[in-house]
Amino acid sequence: MPRAAFITGGSSGIGLALARGLAAKGHDIALFARDPAKLQDAVRDLKAAHPDRIISGHPADVSVLDQLSPAVEAAIATHGAPEWAIANAGIAEPGLFVQQPIESFTRQMDVNYTGALHFAKLLVPAMPSGGHLVFVSSGAAFFGIFGYAAYAPTKFALRGLAEVLRVELAPAIQVTLAYPPDTDTPQLAAEAATKPAATKEITGEAGVWQPQDVADLIISRAAKGKFTVAPGFQMRALLGLHSVLAPLLRWWQAGIVRKHHK
């Protein structure tokens, strides 16, 4: 079986941590990211840490099929079809619905959902039986969070796609859907620039994980054939009880929002 892992959003954060974890387990790695300089740095670091592995970097915007398609073809030419395909690329631009430009809504959907769709469509036909297709979603896929009107629907959509593909692709390809908590990444830091005060208070209750801890759990559970990965007590509670907890969470959020609107 091929021993390659293809990872979008692989130049930093959870994506790079996933690459480190899989390289340590003997996989060759193909990284996909928009920023060529950051991608080059990530490839160099992985090669230094794992000189016995084949590491390649492929600049591409996952939301642009004409960019991603040749990048995937180049990666397959280098590594063969991957055993692991991980759709991790994502952006979050919090803000108030009435204030955010429509371009922010479409940009987040293009990257977070359509980008993952592009990646899966390009790779699934080539993947071997026994392969792993992993989608990295978010706790925002469980219930609506104040300030994430543009972001949350992209993760709800990704959850829907993963749930369908779990059935359609079985048993040949194992689909896994990960719900990372807030994680100490450049993306989380960037969110602070536009995150409303009420959103900061709501999300601040959850605490912050380290990327490698999240990545290692995703790899471990996906390798065991698990469909969902929900790191931490809060994510596990949302996964198992989100329908029951949703009314309580809406009430709790409403109280915080009223306080900030006074």
Automatic annotation (TrEMBL):
<comment type="pathway">
    <text>Lipid metabolism; sphingolipid metabolism.</text>
</comment>
<dbReference type="Pfam" id="PF00106">
    <property type="entry name" value="adh_short"/>
</dbReference>
<feature type="domain" description="Ketoreductase">
    <location>
        <begin position="3"/>
        <end position="176"/>
    </location>
</feature>
<dbReference type="GO" id="GO:0016020">
    <property type="term" value="C:membrane"/>
</dbReference>
<dbReference type="InterPro" id="IPR045022">
    <property type="entry name" value="KDSR-like"/>
</dbReference>
<comment type="pathway">
    <text>Sphingolipid metabolism.</text>
</comment>
<dbReference type="InterPro" id="IPR057326">
    <property type="entry name" value="KR_dom"/>
</dbReference>
<dbReference type="InterPro" id="IPR002347">
    <property type="entry name" value="SDR_fam"/>
</dbReference>
<keyword id="KW-0256">Endoplasmic reticulum</keyword>
<protein>
    <recommendedName>
        <fullName>3-dehydrosphinganine reductase</fullName>
        <ecNumber>1.1.1.102</ecNumber>
    </recommendedName>
</protein>
<keyword id="KW-0560">Oxidoreductase</keyword>
<keyword id="KW-0443">Lipid metabolism</keyword>
<keyword id="KW-0521">NADP</keyword>
<keyword id="KW-0746">Sphingolipid metabolism</keyword>
<dbReference type="GO" id="GO:0047560">
    <property type="term" value="F:3-dehydrosphinganine reductase activity"/>
</dbReference>
<dbReference type="InterPro" id="IPR036291">
    <property type="entry name" value="NAD(P)-bd_dom_sf"/>
</dbReference>
<dbReference type="GO" id="GO:0030148">
    <property type="term" value="P:sphingolipid biosynthetic process"/>
</dbReference>
<dbReference type="GO" id="GO:0006666">
    <property type="term" value="P:3-keto-sphinganine metabolic process"/>
</dbReference>
